[in-house]
């Protein structure tokens, strides 16, 4: 009997490469690699390049030895986001409950008319994305999200795998290593191996209390999901967050105060984007700097109230900066960390905050210009000290964590 509630996991095949092939059809069938920021690392590859032995994360000079006929392209996250949103729109036509898990992965509730088979409905989603967007996707269907993701991973490329009964699930789980489960690797996998647990089926058949002892509650949730009981629902809304951070390398070590402040402003603008994206305001803010030949230093940036305003955040960061940096120290990395996050309806304006209207107007104009002309088309004049960064269009967009996976 087919259960009432099934979960589908949709995963685009070689997504970055597939997105490049949408606008460059001549790349179809050829070995293609997508490179990271500095063009030194392969962050995605086509199946043709994978067959040549190239691995994700491999330096370009090693990849070219293995695949000299390969075509290497610098990544363009703005374009990948456009394609991702088109895929999401199609998926939402077929299901009322869709979770944007990452830039190339969605979970959605399977919806079929009573009495209709599941696979034709799933194949209709796959076919529409391929026809309208020209991106191949693989879809797995099962009773829980963990099972659906496991099964989609084994159906690539451009496959569909439906396991609607416990018998089908057990057969497939017996063929999969526990390390196929996201989050189980290294020490966790070794703990399970020490108890004779090597396959997903062995994990599902293990004593739940033992699994919790070995893998904590996260592992127990996986145990329930492997046994067909949902422990994690589909989340159509953004997951609440405790912290939001922006920063990283400053593109080369520098002790120039103008460059350091320019990076402070750039990261503040990026942080504001994320606060707006997740629809939260920050109650505290920390600046952390990392140096050459000196221990890292962090300092709190004072905030009078919860805010997502660029001017207020930047005022606090400019107070924190001299507490972290002094002339002579060479900065290599910078991080801005926003905490005590709250939704706008659960915050109280600060008594001494500057008037909101001018700031809100400027923020709105910046957003409208960015949507029309490209990200950072309007930005603080302080960032003029970073001409090389903004001259490179590949720096105009970035995707992070579950919003789209870690990228170089």
Tell me what the structure shows:
- By secondary structure, the protein is α+β, with helices and mostly antiparallel strands.
- It has three domains: 1-159, Alpha-Beta Plaits; 165-236, DNA polymerase, domain 1; 244-363, DNA polymerase, Y-family, little finger domain (Dna Ligase, domain 1).
- Helix content is 41%, strand content 18%.
- It is built from 15 helices and twelve strands.
- The protein has helices at 15-23, 47-51, 60-66, 77-94, 118-132, 145-153, 166-173, 186-194, 200-205, 208-226, 257-277, 310-324, 356-373, 387-391, 401-404, and strands at 7-12, 32-35, 42-45, 71-74, 98-102, 105-109, 137-142, 160-162, 244-254, 284-291, 294-301, 331-339.
- A five-stranded mixed sheet has the order 5-6-1-7-8.
- A hairpin with a 6-residue loop joins strand 2 and strand 3 (42-45).
- Helix 4 runs antiparallel to helix 5 (118-132) and helix 11 (257-277) packs across helix 12.
- The radius of gyration is 24 Å and the shape is globular.
- Residues 404-408 have low confidence and may be disordered.
SSE topology sketch:
Blueprint: E1 7-12, H1 15-23, E2 32-35, E3 42-45, H2 47-51, H3 60-66, E4 71-74, H4 77-94, E5 98-102, E6 105-109, H5 118-132, E7 137-142, H6 145-153, E8 160-162, H7 166-173, H8 186-194, H9 200-205, H10 208-226, E9 244-254, H11 257-277, E10 284-291, E11 294-301, H12 310-324, E12 331-339, H13 356-373, H14 387-391, H15 401-404
Parallel strand pairs: 2-4, 7-8
Antiparallel strand pairs: 1-6, 1-7, 2-3, 5-6, 9-12, 10-11, 10-12
């Amino acid at each position: 009997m087919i259960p009432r509630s099934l979960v589908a996991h949709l995963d685009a095949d070689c997504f970055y490469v597939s997105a490049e092939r949408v606008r460059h059809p001549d790349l179809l069938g050829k070995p293609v690699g997508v490179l990271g920021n500095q063009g030194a690392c392969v962050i995605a590859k086509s199946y043709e390049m994978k067959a040549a032995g190239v691995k994700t994360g491999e330096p370009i000079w090693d990849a070219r030895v293995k695949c000299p006929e390969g075509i290497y392209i610098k990544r363009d996250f703005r374009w990948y986001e456009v394609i991702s949103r088109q895929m999401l729109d199609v998926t939402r036509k077929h299901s009322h409950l869709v979770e944007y898990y990452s830039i190339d992965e969605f979970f959605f509730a399977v919806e079929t008319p009573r009495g209709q088979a599941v696979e034709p409905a799933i194949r209709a989603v796959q076919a529409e994305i391929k026809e309208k967007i020209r991106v191949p996707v693989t879809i797995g269907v099962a009773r829980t999200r963990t099972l659906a993701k496991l099964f989609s991973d084994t159906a690539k490329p451009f496959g569909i795998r439906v396991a609607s009964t416990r018998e089908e699930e057990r057969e497939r789980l017996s063929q999969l290593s526990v390390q196929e489960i996201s989050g189980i690797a290294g020490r966790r996998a070794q703990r399970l191996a020490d108890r004779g647990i090597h396959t997903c089926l062995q994990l599902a058949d293990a004593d739940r209390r033992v699994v919790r002892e070995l893998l904590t509650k996260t592992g127990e949730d996986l145990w329930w999901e492997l046994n067909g009981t949902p422990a994690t629902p589909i989340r159509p809304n953004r997951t609440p967050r405790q912290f939001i951070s922006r920063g990283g390398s400053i593109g080369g070590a520098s002790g120039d105060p103008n460059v350091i402040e320019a990076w402070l402003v750039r990261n503040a603008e990026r942080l504001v984007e994320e606060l707006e994206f997740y629809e939260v305001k920050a109650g505290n803010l920390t600046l952390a700097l990392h140096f050459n030949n000196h221990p890292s230093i962090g300092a709190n940036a004072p905030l009078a109230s919860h805010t997502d305003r660029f001017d207020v955040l930047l005022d606090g960061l400019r107070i924190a900066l001299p507490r972290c940096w002094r002339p002579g120290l060479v900065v290599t990395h910078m991080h801005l960390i926003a905490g005590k996050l709250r939704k706008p309806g659960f915050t109280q304006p600060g008594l001494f905050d500057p008037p909101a209207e001018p700031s809100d107007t400027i923020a709105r104009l910046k957003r409208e210009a960015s949507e029309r002309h490209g990200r950072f088309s309007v930005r603080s004049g302080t960032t003029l000290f970073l001409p090389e960064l903004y001259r490179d269009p590949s720096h105009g967009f970035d995707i992070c964590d579950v919003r789209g996976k870690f990228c170089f």
